[in-house]
Amino acid sequence: MRKALVTPGPVLFCAALGFLFLGAGAFFSETSSLVCLLAGMIALPLIILDLLALLLLTDRSRVERSMAGVLALGVKSPVTLTIRRGGGGLLPGGLRLFDLYPDGMEALSLPAGGDAFPAKISVSALREPAAGGPGDKAVRFTYEVLPLERGNWEFPETQLMLRSFLGCWRLKVIHPLVSRGRTFPDFKKLARGAGNLKAALERSETGGVRKRGQGMEFMGLREYQKGDSVKAIDWRATGRRGRVIVREYEEERDQQILFLLDSGYRLHRREGAGTQFDSALEGATLLSWVALKRGDSVAFGSFGAEERWLPPRKGIGALPGIMRGLYDLKSESVPSSLFSALEGALTRLKRRSLIIMISNFREEDGESLSWIIGNVRRRHLLLLVSLRETEAEAIAARNPAGKDEELETAAARAYLAARKKLYTIWEHSGILTLECSAANLSPALIGRYLEIKRGGLL
Protein backbone atom coordinates (compact mmCIF):
# COMPACT_ATOMS: atom_id res chain seq x y z
CA MET A 1 0.00 0.00 0.00
CA ARG A 2 1.32 3.39 -0.95
CA LYS A 3 1.97 5.98 1.75
CA ALA A 4 1.98 9.75 1.31
CA LEU A 5 3.48 12.56 3.37
CA VAL A 6 3.03 16.29 2.74
CA THR A 7 5.87 18.71 3.49
CA PRO A 8 6.27 22.46 2.80
CA GLY A 9 8.01 23.41 -0.40
CA PRO A 10 10.63 26.08 -1.04
CA VAL A 11 8.06 28.55 -2.42
CA LEU A 12 6.04 28.39 0.78
CA PHE A 13 9.19 28.92 2.81
CA CYS A 14 10.08 32.03 0.78
CA ALA A 15 6.50 33.31 1.09
CA ALA A 16 6.55 32.88 4.86
CA LEU A 17 9.86 34.70 5.03
CA GLY A 18 8.40 37.56 2.95
CA PHE A 19 5.34 37.83 5.25
CA LEU A 20 7.69 37.97 8.21
CA PHE A 21 9.44 41.02 6.81
CA LEU A 22 6.14 42.65 5.83
CA GLY A 23 4.77 41.99 9.30
CA ALA A 24 7.83 43.57 10.84
CA GLY A 25 7.41 46.62 8.58
CA ALA A 26 3.72 46.95 9.56
CA PHE A 27 4.79 48.21 12.99
CA PHE A 28 6.38 51.25 11.38
CA SER A 29 4.17 51.98 8.38
CA GLU A 30 0.46 51.77 7.65
CA THR A 31 1.27 51.16 3.99
CA SER A 32 3.29 48.07 4.86
CA SER A 33 0.42 46.85 7.02
CA LEU A 34 -2.03 47.26 4.13
CA VAL A 35 0.31 45.50 1.71
CA CYS A 36 0.74 42.63 4.17
CA LEU A 37 -3.02 42.26 4.54
CA LEU A 38 -3.69 42.28 0.80
CA ALA A 39 -0.84 39.86 0.11
CA GLY A 40 -2.20 37.53 2.73
CA MET A 41 -5.71 37.65 1.31
CA ILE A 42 -4.35 36.73 -2.12
CA ALA A 43 -1.65 34.24 -1.14
CA LEU A 44 -3.54 32.22 1.48
CA PRO A 45 -6.28 30.95 -0.91
CA LEU A 46 -3.63 30.14 -3.52
CA ILE A 47 -1.60 28.17 -1.00
CA ILE A 48 -4.70 26.24 0.10
CA LEU A 49 -5.78 25.57 -3.48
CA ASP A 50 -2.27 24.47 -4.33
CA LEU A 51 -2.38 21.97 -1.46
CA LEU A 52 -5.83 20.66 -2.38
CA ALA A 53 -4.82 20.20 -6.02
CA LEU A 54 -1.74 18.27 -4.93
CA LEU A 55 -3.69 16.02 -2.58
CA LEU A 56 -6.87 15.47 -4.58
CA LEU A 57 -6.15 16.03 -8.26
CA THR A 58 -2.50 15.13 -8.83
CA ASP A 59 -1.70 11.72 -10.27
CA ARG A 60 0.31 9.54 -7.83
CA SER A 61 1.96 7.47 -10.59
CA ARG A 62 3.12 3.84 -10.38
CA VAL A 63 6.69 2.58 -10.17
CA GLU A 64 8.18 -0.72 -11.35
CA ARG A 65 11.73 -1.95 -10.80
CA SER A 66 13.64 -4.29 -13.09
CA MET A 67 17.03 -5.73 -12.12
CA ALA A 68 19.01 -8.96 -11.90
CA GLY A 69 18.48 -11.14 -8.84
CA VAL A 70 22.10 -12.34 -8.75
CA LEU A 71 24.95 -9.80 -8.69
CA ALA A 72 28.73 -10.11 -8.68
CA LEU A 73 30.89 -8.38 -6.10
CA GLY A 74 32.45 -5.22 -7.52
CA VAL A 75 30.63 -5.50 -10.88
CA LYS A 76 28.17 -2.81 -11.92
CA SER A 77 24.67 -3.94 -12.77
CA PRO A 78 21.83 -1.87 -14.33
CA VAL A 79 18.58 -1.13 -12.52
CA THR A 80 15.60 0.25 -14.44
CA LEU A 81 12.75 2.12 -12.75
CA THR A 82 9.63 2.59 -14.85
CA ILE A 83 7.25 5.38 -13.82
CA ARG A 84 3.73 5.18 -15.25
CA ARG A 85 0.70 7.38 -14.80
CA GLY A 86 -1.61 5.87 -12.23
CA GLY A 87 -4.86 7.27 -13.63
CA GLY A 88 -6.42 10.36 -15.12
CA GLY A 89 -5.12 12.85 -12.57
CA LEU A 90 -3.14 15.98 -13.26
CA LEU A 91 0.60 15.79 -13.61
CA PRO A 92 2.61 17.40 -10.80
CA GLY A 93 4.64 20.55 -11.24
CA GLY A 94 7.85 18.62 -10.70
CA LEU A 95 8.95 15.05 -10.02
CA ARG A 96 11.97 13.61 -8.23
CA LEU A 97 12.78 9.95 -7.76
CA PHE A 98 14.50 8.08 -4.92
CA ASP A 99 15.27 4.36 -4.83
CA LEU A 100 16.20 2.95 -1.42
CA TYR A 101 19.12 0.67 -2.29
CA PRO A 102 20.95 -1.46 0.33
CA ASP A 103 23.81 -0.13 2.44
CA GLY A 104 26.23 -2.59 0.86
CA MET A 105 25.87 -0.98 -2.58
CA GLU A 106 26.55 2.28 -4.37
CA ALA A 107 24.06 3.84 -6.81
CA LEU A 108 25.71 5.42 -9.85
CA SER A 109 24.08 7.56 -12.50
CA LEU A 110 24.48 6.98 -16.22
CA PRO A 111 26.63 7.96 -17.99
CA ALA A 112 28.46 10.32 -15.61
CA GLY A 113 28.85 7.80 -12.81
CA GLY A 114 28.09 10.13 -9.88
CA ASP A 115 25.36 9.76 -7.27
CA ALA A 116 22.18 8.61 -8.95
CA PHE A 117 19.73 10.09 -6.45
CA PRO A 118 17.77 12.23 -6.12
CA ALA A 119 16.95 11.90 -9.81
CA LYS A 120 14.97 14.62 -11.57
CA ILE A 121 12.31 13.13 -13.85
CA SER A 122 10.84 14.99 -16.81
CA VAL A 123 7.13 15.44 -16.17
CA SER A 124 6.46 16.28 -19.79
CA ALA A 125 7.66 12.80 -20.80
CA LEU A 126 4.65 11.29 -19.02
CA ARG A 127 2.38 13.11 -21.46
CA GLU A 128 3.90 11.34 -24.46
CA PRO A 129 3.36 7.66 -25.35
CA ALA A 130 6.37 5.50 -24.50
CA ALA A 131 7.85 2.68 -26.53
CA GLY A 132 5.19 0.28 -25.32
CA GLY A 133 2.48 1.83 -27.49
CA PRO A 134 -0.02 4.69 -27.56
CA GLY A 135 -1.52 3.71 -24.21
CA ASP A 136 1.83 3.26 -22.49
CA LYS A 137 2.74 6.64 -21.02
CA ALA A 138 5.86 5.98 -18.97
CA VAL A 139 9.32 7.25 -18.13
CA ARG A 140 12.19 4.80 -17.70
CA PHE A 141 15.12 5.78 -15.50
CA THR A 142 18.18 3.52 -15.53
CA TYR A 143 21.07 3.65 -13.12
CA GLU A 144 23.78 1.22 -11.98
CA VAL A 145 24.40 -0.42 -8.63
CA LEU A 146 27.89 -1.40 -7.52
CA PRO A 147 27.82 -4.22 -4.91
CA LEU A 148 30.47 -3.73 -2.23
CA GLU A 149 29.58 -6.70 -0.01
CA ARG A 150 28.67 -10.33 -0.54
CA GLY A 151 25.46 -11.81 0.80
CA ASN A 152 21.72 -11.25 0.66
CA TRP A 153 20.29 -7.83 -0.18
CA GLU A 154 16.89 -6.17 -0.38
CA PHE A 155 15.50 -3.04 -2.00
CA PRO A 156 12.55 -2.13 0.29
CA GLU A 157 10.83 0.72 -1.54
CA THR A 158 10.96 3.63 -3.95
CA GLN A 159 9.89 7.20 -3.28
CA LEU A 160 8.43 9.85 -5.57
CA MET A 161 8.61 13.48 -4.52
CA LEU A 162 5.76 15.36 -6.27
CA ARG A 163 5.94 19.14 -6.40
CA SER A 164 2.71 21.14 -6.39
CA PHE A 165 1.88 23.42 -9.31
CA LEU A 166 2.91 26.61 -7.48
CA GLY A 167 5.77 24.94 -5.64
CA CYS A 168 4.30 25.59 -2.18
CA TRP A 169 4.03 21.94 -1.22
CA ARG A 170 5.77 18.63 -1.79
CA LEU A 171 4.12 15.22 -1.55
CA LYS A 172 6.31 12.22 -0.81
CA VAL A 173 4.68 9.06 -2.18
CA ILE A 174 6.26 5.84 -0.86
CA HIS A 175 5.87 2.76 -3.03
CA PRO A 176 6.64 -0.51 -1.12
CA LEU A 177 8.47 -2.06 -4.05
CA VAL A 178 10.58 -4.98 -2.76
CA SER A 179 13.39 -6.62 -4.74
CA ARG A 180 15.57 -9.33 -3.19
CA GLY A 181 18.65 -11.15 -4.37
CA ARG A 182 22.20 -12.26 -3.62
CA THR A 183 25.70 -10.99 -4.32
CA PHE A 184 28.35 -13.58 -5.17
CA PRO A 185 32.12 -13.16 -5.60
CA ASP A 186 33.12 -12.05 -9.08
CA PHE A 187 34.22 -15.46 -10.26
CA LYS A 188 34.82 -14.41 -13.88
CA LYS A 189 37.14 -11.62 -12.82
CA LEU A 190 39.14 -14.01 -10.68
CA ALA A 191 39.40 -16.48 -13.52
CA ARG A 192 40.72 -13.80 -15.87
CA GLY A 193 43.20 -12.53 -13.31
CA ALA A 194 44.84 -15.77 -12.22
CA GLY A 195 47.97 -16.33 -14.27
CA ASN A 196 48.18 -20.10 -13.78
CA LEU A 197 44.52 -20.82 -14.44
CA LYS A 198 44.62 -20.86 -18.24
CA ALA A 199 47.20 -23.63 -18.47
CA ALA A 200 45.42 -25.63 -15.79
CA LEU A 201 42.10 -25.47 -17.59
CA GLU A 202 43.63 -26.31 -20.95
CA ARG A 203 45.11 -29.49 -19.52
CA SER A 204 41.89 -30.37 -17.74
CA GLU A 205 39.83 -30.24 -20.93
CA THR A 206 41.52 -33.34 -22.38
CA GLY A 207 40.46 -36.81 -21.42
CA GLY A 208 43.84 -38.34 -20.51
CA VAL A 209 45.59 -35.56 -18.68
CA ARG A 210 49.31 -36.08 -18.38
CA LYS A 211 51.29 -34.23 -15.74
CA ARG A 212 54.79 -34.22 -14.47
CA GLY A 213 55.55 -35.86 -11.16
CA GLN A 214 54.69 -39.03 -9.32
CA GLY A 215 51.38 -40.59 -10.27
CA MET A 216 49.71 -43.97 -10.46
CA GLU A 217 50.43 -45.05 -14.05
CA PHE A 218 53.66 -44.73 -16.04
CA MET A 219 53.08 -42.88 -19.31
CA GLY A 220 56.55 -42.47 -20.89
CA LEU A 221 59.86 -40.59 -20.87
CA ARG A 222 60.68 -37.00 -21.72
CA GLU A 223 63.39 -34.41 -21.15
CA TYR A 224 63.74 -32.73 -17.80
CA GLN A 225 61.90 -29.44 -17.33
CA LYS A 226 62.27 -26.82 -14.65
CA GLY A 227 60.14 -27.76 -11.65
CA ASP A 228 60.41 -31.56 -12.10
CA SER A 229 61.15 -33.59 -9.01
CA VAL A 230 64.58 -35.17 -8.73
CA LYS A 231 62.84 -38.44 -7.83
CA ALA A 232 61.33 -38.50 -11.33
CA ILE A 233 64.74 -38.68 -13.08
CA ASP A 234 65.40 -41.95 -14.91
CA TRP A 235 69.17 -42.26 -14.45
CA ARG A 236 69.54 -45.21 -16.81
CA ALA A 237 67.81 -43.36 -19.67
CA THR A 238 69.78 -40.23 -18.79
CA GLY A 239 73.07 -42.13 -19.17
CA ARG A 240 72.05 -43.62 -22.51
CA ARG A 241 70.85 -40.34 -24.08
CA GLY A 242 73.39 -37.98 -22.59
CA ARG A 243 70.78 -35.56 -21.24
CA VAL A 244 68.51 -35.54 -18.21
CA ILE A 245 65.41 -37.71 -18.76
CA VAL A 246 62.46 -37.99 -16.39
CA ARG A 247 59.62 -40.47 -16.12
CA GLU A 248 56.16 -39.08 -16.89
CA TYR A 249 53.12 -40.32 -15.03
CA GLU A 250 49.42 -39.86 -15.43
CA GLU A 251 48.15 -37.38 -12.89
CA GLU A 252 46.45 -39.03 -9.95
CA ARG A 253 42.81 -38.02 -9.69
CA ASP A 254 40.06 -38.51 -7.16
CA GLN A 255 42.00 -36.85 -4.37
CA GLN A 256 40.37 -34.75 -1.67
CA ILE A 257 40.97 -31.12 -0.67
CA LEU A 258 39.64 -29.37 2.43
CA PHE A 259 39.71 -25.59 2.75
CA LEU A 260 39.64 -24.19 6.29
CA LEU A 261 38.94 -20.43 6.26
CA ASP A 262 39.50 -18.22 9.30
CA SER A 263 36.54 -15.84 9.52
CA GLY A 264 37.72 -14.22 12.77
CA TYR A 265 39.74 -11.11 13.47
CA ARG A 266 42.96 -12.42 11.87
CA LEU A 267 41.64 -11.85 8.32
CA HIS A 268 39.23 -9.02 9.11
CA ARG A 269 41.80 -6.41 8.06
CA ARG A 270 40.73 -4.35 5.04
CA GLU A 271 42.93 -4.31 1.95
CA GLY A 272 41.71 -2.49 -1.11
CA ALA A 273 37.96 -2.74 -1.72
CA GLY A 274 37.44 -5.65 0.70
CA THR A 275 38.91 -7.56 3.60
CA GLN A 276 41.64 -10.16 3.58
CA PHE A 277 38.94 -12.73 4.22
CA ASP A 278 37.24 -11.74 0.95
CA SER A 279 40.50 -12.44 -0.86
CA ALA A 280 40.87 -15.75 0.98
CA LEU A 281 37.38 -16.85 0.05
CA GLU A 282 37.81 -15.83 -3.58
CA GLY A 283 41.17 -17.59 -3.85
CA ALA A 284 39.83 -20.78 -2.27
CA THR A 285 36.76 -20.74 -4.52
CA LEU A 286 38.89 -20.31 -7.62
CA LEU A 287 41.21 -23.13 -6.61
CA SER A 288 38.20 -25.35 -5.94
CA TRP A 289 37.14 -24.73 -9.55
CA VAL A 290 40.55 -25.88 -10.79
CA ALA A 291 40.52 -28.91 -8.49
CA LEU A 292 37.02 -29.96 -9.53
CA LYS A 293 37.99 -29.64 -13.19
CA ARG A 294 40.93 -31.95 -12.52
CA GLY A 295 38.86 -34.71 -10.90
CA ASP A 296 39.45 -33.96 -7.20
CA SER A 297 36.74 -33.57 -4.57
CA VAL A 298 36.49 -30.37 -2.53
CA ALA A 299 35.23 -29.63 1.00
CA PHE A 300 34.98 -26.32 2.85
CA GLY A 301 35.00 -25.39 6.51
CA SER A 302 35.04 -22.04 8.29
CA PHE A 303 35.80 -21.14 11.89
CA GLY A 304 35.81 -17.96 13.93
CA ALA A 305 32.84 -15.68 13.31
CA GLU A 306 30.80 -18.57 11.92
CA GLU A 307 31.38 -22.30 11.80
CA ARG A 308 30.24 -23.69 8.48
CA TRP A 309 30.89 -27.08 6.89
CA LEU A 310 30.38 -28.14 3.29
CA PRO A 311 31.01 -31.89 2.85
CA PRO A 312 33.26 -33.14 0.02
CA ARG A 313 31.81 -32.73 -3.45
CA LYS A 314 33.16 -33.92 -6.77
CA GLY A 315 32.70 -32.83 -10.38
CA ILE A 316 32.46 -29.40 -11.92
CA GLY A 317 28.69 -29.51 -11.40
CA ALA A 318 29.32 -29.17 -7.65
CA LEU A 319 30.66 -25.62 -8.06
CA PRO A 320 27.26 -23.85 -7.99
CA GLY A 321 26.42 -25.61 -4.72
CA ILE A 322 29.73 -24.51 -3.23
CA MET A 323 29.09 -20.92 -4.32
CA ARG A 324 25.61 -20.97 -2.78
CA GLY A 325 27.03 -22.33 0.45
CA LEU A 326 29.74 -19.65 0.78
CA TYR A 327 28.50 -16.47 -0.91
CA ASP A 328 27.23 -14.87 2.32
CA LEU A 329 30.12 -15.95 4.55
CA LYS A 330 31.84 -12.93 6.14
CA SER A 331 34.51 -12.23 8.71
CA GLU A 332 34.08 -10.41 11.99
CA SER A 333 36.39 -9.01 14.64
CA VAL A 334 36.05 -12.02 16.96
CA PRO A 335 38.57 -14.63 18.19
CA SER A 336 39.14 -17.83 16.25
CA SER A 337 40.67 -21.15 17.34
CA LEU A 338 43.07 -22.74 14.86
CA PHE A 339 43.42 -25.78 17.13
CA SER A 340 39.67 -26.44 17.25
CA ALA A 341 39.38 -26.06 13.47
CA LEU A 342 42.04 -28.73 12.86
CA GLU A 343 40.58 -30.96 15.55
CA GLY A 344 37.16 -30.76 13.90
CA ALA A 345 38.69 -31.55 10.51
CA LEU A 346 40.26 -34.73 11.89
CA THR A 347 36.90 -35.98 13.10
CA ARG A 348 35.14 -35.24 9.80
CA LEU A 349 37.68 -36.43 7.23
CA LYS A 350 37.49 -40.15 6.51
CA ARG A 351 40.32 -40.33 3.98
CA ARG A 352 43.72 -38.74 3.43
CA SER A 353 43.25 -35.16 2.26
CA LEU A 354 45.09 -31.98 1.43
CA ILE A 355 44.08 -29.54 4.18
CA ILE A 356 44.56 -25.90 3.18
CA MET A 357 44.13 -23.62 6.21
CA ILE A 358 44.08 -19.91 5.36
CA SER A 359 44.68 -17.48 8.21
CA ASN A 360 47.32 -15.11 9.57
CA PHE A 361 49.79 -17.25 11.51
CA ARG A 362 51.96 -15.68 14.20
CA GLU A 363 54.74 -16.72 16.52
CA GLU A 364 52.41 -17.78 19.34
CA ASP A 365 50.66 -20.27 17.03
CA GLY A 366 53.75 -22.48 17.04
CA GLU A 367 53.15 -23.57 20.63
CA SER A 368 49.34 -23.64 20.47
CA LEU A 369 49.31 -25.89 17.38
CA SER A 370 52.20 -28.12 18.41
CA TRP A 371 49.80 -30.49 20.16
CA ILE A 372 47.82 -31.30 17.03
CA ILE A 373 50.02 -30.62 13.98
CA GLY A 374 51.86 -33.92 14.40
CA ASN A 375 48.60 -35.86 14.43
CA VAL A 376 47.36 -33.99 11.35
CA ARG A 377 50.63 -34.57 9.48
CA ARG A 378 50.49 -38.33 10.05
CA ARG A 379 47.03 -38.64 8.50
CA HIS A 380 46.86 -35.76 5.99
CA LEU A 381 48.92 -33.28 4.00
CA LEU A 382 48.70 -29.85 5.63
CA LEU A 383 49.27 -26.53 3.86
CA LEU A 384 49.22 -23.45 6.11
CA VAL A 385 48.57 -20.29 4.11
CA SER A 386 49.35 -17.01 5.87
CA LEU A 387 48.44 -13.60 4.44
CA ARG A 388 51.13 -10.99 4.77
CA GLU A 389 50.67 -7.93 6.98
CA THR A 390 51.40 -5.03 4.67
CA GLU A 391 51.35 -2.46 7.48
CA ALA A 392 54.06 -4.25 9.45
CA GLU A 393 56.14 -4.74 6.29
CA ALA A 394 55.86 -1.04 5.44
CA ILE A 395 57.02 -0.05 8.93
CA ALA A 396 59.89 -2.54 8.81
CA ALA A 397 61.07 -1.27 5.41
CA ARG A 398 61.08 2.45 6.21
CA ASN A 399 64.00 4.60 7.31
CA PRO A 400 63.13 5.76 10.85
CA ALA A 401 63.30 9.52 11.43
CA GLY A 402 63.31 9.57 15.22
CA LYS A 403 63.62 7.45 18.33
CA ASP A 404 59.91 6.51 18.35
CA GLU A 405 60.04 5.38 14.74
CA GLU A 406 63.25 3.44 15.43
CA LEU A 407 61.47 1.48 18.16
CA GLU A 408 58.47 0.82 15.91
CA THR A 409 60.70 -0.28 13.05
CA ALA A 410 62.74 -2.59 15.27
CA ALA A 411 59.57 -4.13 16.71
CA ALA A 412 58.10 -4.67 13.23
CA ARG A 413 61.30 -6.33 11.99
CA ALA A 414 61.46 -8.61 15.02
CA TYR A 415 57.79 -9.52 14.57
CA LEU A 416 58.24 -10.44 10.90
CA ALA A 417 61.44 -12.36 11.62
CA ALA A 418 59.64 -14.44 14.26
CA ARG A 419 56.89 -15.26 11.74
CA LYS A 420 59.40 -16.41 9.13
CA LYS A 421 61.22 -18.50 11.72
CA LEU A 422 57.96 -20.23 12.62
CA TYR A 423 57.25 -21.05 8.97
CA THR A 424 60.77 -22.48 8.59
CA ILE A 425 60.25 -24.73 11.62
CA TRP A 426 56.97 -25.97 10.18
CA GLU A 427 58.57 -26.69 6.81
CA HIS A 428 61.34 -28.74 8.47
CA SER A 429 58.70 -30.76 10.34
CA GLY A 430 56.91 -31.71 7.10
CA ILE A 431 54.20 -29.02 7.07
CA LEU A 432 53.81 -27.02 3.86
CA THR A 433 53.59 -23.24 4.21
CA LEU A 434 52.74 -20.37 1.90
CA GLU A 435 52.98 -16.67 2.71
CA CYS A 436 51.70 -14.14 0.20
CA SER A 437 49.72 -10.92 -0.10
CA ALA A 438 45.96 -10.88 -0.40
CA ALA A 439 46.20 -9.52 -3.95
CA ASN A 440 48.38 -12.44 -5.13
CA LEU A 441 46.64 -15.19 -3.18
CA SER A 442 44.69 -16.74 -6.07
CA PRO A 443 47.62 -17.42 -8.42
CA ALA A 444 49.85 -18.42 -5.49
CA LEU A 445 47.31 -21.00 -4.29
CA ILE A 446 46.90 -22.44 -7.77
CA GLY A 447 50.65 -22.62 -8.25
CA ARG A 448 51.19 -24.47 -4.98
CA TYR A 449 48.31 -26.87 -5.73
CA LEU A 450 49.86 -27.73 -9.10
CA GLU A 451 53.25 -28.28 -7.44
CA ILE A 452 51.67 -30.69 -4.96
CA LYS A 453 49.92 -32.58 -7.73
CA ARG A 454 53.06 -32.56 -9.85
CA GLY A 455 55.18 -33.91 -7.02
CA GLY A 456 52.71 -36.59 -5.95
CA LEU A 457 52.91 -35.37 -2.34
CA LEU A 458 49.31 -36.18 -1.54
Protein architecture, described:
The protein has 458 residues and is α+β, with helices and mostly antiparallel strands. It folds into three domains: 62-183, Immunoglobulin-like; 187-209 and 251-455, Rossmann fold (3-Layer(aba) Sandwich); 211-250, no CATH class. The protein contains 13 helices and 23 strands. The chain has helices at residues 10-26, 30-57, 187-193, 197-204, 235-241, 276-293, 319-326, 338-348, 365-368, 370-379, 390-397, 403-428, 441-455, and strands at 3-8, 62-67, 70-72, 77-84, 94-99, 105-108, 119-121, 138-147, 151-155, 158-163, 169-175, 179-184, 210-211, 217-223, 245-250, 256-262, 270-271, 274-275, 297-303, 308-314, 354-359, 381-387, 432-436. The chain has a six-stranded mixed β-sheet, with helices on both faces. The chain has a five-stranded antiparallel β-sheet with strand order 1-11-10-5-7. Strands 2-4-8-6 form a four-stranded antiparallel β-sheet, with no helix packed on it. Helix 1 packs antiparallel against helix 2 (30-57), helix 6 (276-293) packs parallel to helix 13 and helix 11 crosses helix 12 (403-428). The protein is elongated, with a radius of gyration of 33 Å. Residues 203-216 have low confidence and may be disordered.
Averaged pLDDT:
84
Name the CATH superfamily assignment of the largest domain: von Willebrand factor, type A domain
Number of structurally distinct domains: 3
Kindly, what is the distance between the CA atoms of the first and last residues, rounded to a whole number of angstroms? 61 Å
- Helix fraction, binned, reads 25-40%
Proportion of strand residues: 25-35%
Number of extended strands = 23
Strand order, sheet with most strands: 20-19-16-21-22-23
CATH topology descriptor of the largest domain: Rossmann fold
CATH architecture classification of the largest domain = 3-Layer(aba) Sandwich
Structural class: alpha+beta
Radius of gyration: 33 Å
- Total of helices: 13
Uncertain segments of ≥5 residues (pLDDT<50)?
203-216
Could you name the CATH class of the largest domain? Answer: Alpha Beta
Shape estimate: elongated
